[in-house]
Specification:
CATH architecture of the largest domain: 2-Layer Sandwich
Helix content: 40-55%
Order of helices and strands: HHEEHHEEEHHEHEEHEEHHEE
CATH superfamily of the largest domain: Histidine kinase-like ATPase, C-terminal domain
Largest sheet: 5 strands, antiparallel
Number of domains: 4
Radius of gyration: 38 Å
Distance between the termini: 34 Å
Number of helices: 10
CATH class of the largest domain: Alpha Beta
Strand order of the largest sheet: 2-1-5-4-3
Number of strands: 12
CATH topology of the largest domain: Heat Shock Protein 90
Length: 435
C-alpha cells in the first residue's frame, strides 16, 4: 500500500542537528545585537535585558522538545515505509481479488486480481462506479456502522456466469503514522467451480436416470427371456445377445457424453490460452470420416485456407466440435449425398483489426423445421427421437458443441430449411498476431 509520508530513510536526527544548531546560534546573535543597539540608543533598561535572556532560554527549551519530536517522526518514517512495502507485496501476491475502501466506499487499494475481475477499477474513485451489486455496497455500509464482519454473495453474468462469496470486514489501523485510520476490506472468494459441480451432479443424476431407464429395462427383459423361454433356443439367444450388446454400447456412449459435458462445464469460466491452427484440425477429421461416409454414399468435401487460421483454443475440445458436426452431417444428411466443410478468416463487425475464424459444416439432407432450431443445443433434445436412437445418437452432441464454443468465447449459428439441408457455423476470435 502507498505510504503517505515522503520522508526518506536517509534523514534523521543526526543529519538535522547541525542545521538546528546553526539556526539557534543565528537567532541568539541576532537577539544580542538587537539588544545592544536598543541599550545604546537608550530604549532599554534592566528589565529589557532580563526579558531577552528569558526569551533565549525559552527558545532553547522549546527547540529541544521539537527536536525530540522530530527525531521520533524521522525514526518512525523508515519503519512505516518498510511495513507499507511489505503489505503491498503481500497484497499483490494474493491470488483472490482484494479491495480496500474508506468510510465513503472510495477505493484506496486493489490488487491485480481485483483489477482483472473489475476492469477499469481505479484508486480514488467510488467502488459503486465499477461494482454494480447492491448487496455488496449495502454490506459495506453495515460493516462501517456496526464494526462487525459479514459475508454476501456477488454474481456476474458477462462474459461468463461467475459467483463469489465476498467477505467484508472492518479495517482499523493501530499506528498513528498511517494515512488511513479506518476503512473496509473486501475479499472475494470464487465459488464458481463449486456451484457448477453441484449443478452438474444434480443434472447428471436426473438426465442419466431418465436416459438409462430404457436400455436398462431392455437389458433386464432380455436377460429374463434368456433365463426362461429362450434358454434352449440358440437362434433367439444370439439375436437377443446382439440387441443387448447394442443397448450396452448406447449406455456407454451416453455416459461418455455426459462426462465430457461435465468436464467442459467445469472449465467454462477459464478461457483457453493455447494457439491452435483450426484448418490443421479439420483435415484429419475429414480423412477419418470419409471411409464410413462413402459406405453411406456421402462425399465429404473440405475447403481449407492456404494460410493458418489460428485461434486461442483447447485442441482436444476443438477436435470434438469438428467431429460432432461432421458426424451429425453424415448421419442425418446422408440423403443429400455430400457434406461441405470450410474454414476461413473473415473481418469482424468491430473493424478490420479484429478477425474471426469461421468453421462451417453444410449438409444437403432433409433439413430441420424452424420450430426445432432454437432447442437443438439443449441436452437430450431430438427432432426425431426414434431416428436419433436408431442411429446411435445420445442427444448430447450439439450441447457439447455449444458449451465448447462458449468456453472459447465464440458463437454457434444454425441455419436450415426443410428440404434444403442444414448449415452449422462456428465463429471464434482469431488469436492476436503477436502470439
Amino acid at each position: 500500500m502507498t505510504d503517505p509520508s515522503e520522508i526518506t530513510p536517509a534523514a534523521g536526527p543526526s543529519g538535522a542537528a547541525p542545521l538546528r544548531a546553526a539556526a539557534f546560534r543565528g537567532a541568539a546573535l541576532t537577539s544580542l545585537l538587537l539588544s545592544a543597539i536598543a541599550l545604546w540608543r537608550g530604549y532599554g533598561d534592566g528589565w529589557f535585558v532580563v526579558g531577552v535572556v528569558c526569551a533565549m532560554m525559552l527558545s532553547a527549551g522549546t527547540g529541544g522538545v521539537q527536536r525530540k519530536r522530530l527525531g521520533q517522526v524521522l525514526q518512525s518514517g523508515p519503519k512505516a515505509s518498510a511495513r507499507s512495502a511489505v503489505a503491498e507485496a503481500v497484497l499483490t501476491q494474493i491470488p483472490d481479488p482484494v479491495i480496500l475502501v474508506d468510510r465513503r466506499a472510495v477505493v484506496l487499494e486493489a490488487n491485480r486480481a481485483a483489477q482483472i475481475l473489475l476492469p477499469g477499477l481505479k484508486v480514488g474513485h467510488p467502488l459503486s462506479f465499477f461494482l454494480r451489486s447492491p448487496d455488496v455496497l449495502d454490506g459495506i455500509e453495515e460493516v462501517i456502522e456496526t464494526g462487525g464482519a459479514l459475508r454476501v454473495e456477488y454474481s456476474e453474468r458477462v462474459p461468463t456466469e461467475r459467483t463469489f462469496e465476498v467477505h467484508i470486514g472492518p479495517l482499523q489501523a493501530e499506528a498513528s503514522t498511517v494515512a488511513v485510520q479506518s476503512g473496509v476490506v473486501l475479499f472475494f472468494r470464487d465459488l464458481t467451480s463449486a456451484r457448477r459441480l453441484e449443478a452438474m451432479r444434480a443434472d447428471f443424476v436426473a438426465n442419466a436416470s431418465h436416459e438409462l431407464r430404457t436400455p436398462l429395462a431392455s437389458l433386464l427383459g432380455f436377460v429374463e427371456t434368456l433365463q426362461g423361454p429362450a434358454r434352449d433356443d440358440p437362434g433367439a439367444r444370439e439375436r437377443f445377445l446382439e440387441i443387448m450388446r447394442v443397448q450396452a454400447q448406447r449406455m456407454r456412449r451416453l455416459i461418455d457424453d455426459l462426462l465430457s459435458l461435465s468436464r467442459i462445464e467445469m472449465r467454462a469460466h477459464v478461457p483457453p490460452t493455447q494457439v491452435v491452427d483450426l484448418g490443421s484440425l479439420v483435415a484429419p477429421m475429414v480423412e477419418t470420416f470419409s471411409p464410413a461416409a462413402k459406405e453411406k454414399g456421402v462425399m465429404i468435401r473440405a475447403a481449407l485456407p492456404p494460410r493458418p487460421v489460428r485461434v486461442l483454443g483447447d485442441r482436444d475440445e476443438l477436435l470434438r466440435v469438428i467431429e460432432n458436426l461432421i458426424e451429425n452431417a453424415v448421419k442425418y444428411g446422408e440423403s443429400g449425398g455430400a457434406v461441405d466443410v470450410t474454414v476461413e478468416s473473415v473481418e469482424a463487425d468491430r473493424g478490420p483489426q479484429d478477425r474471426l475464424a469461421v468453421l462451417s459444416v453444410q449438409d444437403y439432407g432433409p433439413g430441420i423445421a424452424p420450430e426445432h432450431l432454437p432447442r437443438l443445443t439443449e441436452r437430450f433434445y431430438r427432432v426425431d427421437v426414434a431416428q436419433s436412437r436408431d442411429k446411435g445418437g445420445t442427444g448430447l452432441g450439439l450441447a457439447i458443441v455449444k458449451h465448447i464454443v462458449n468456453r472459447h468465447r465464440g458463437r454457434l449459428d444454425i441455419a436450415s430449411e426443410p428440404g434444403q439441408g442444414a448449415r452449422f457455423t462456428v465463429r471464434l476470435p482469431e488469436a492476436p498476431s503477436g502470439l
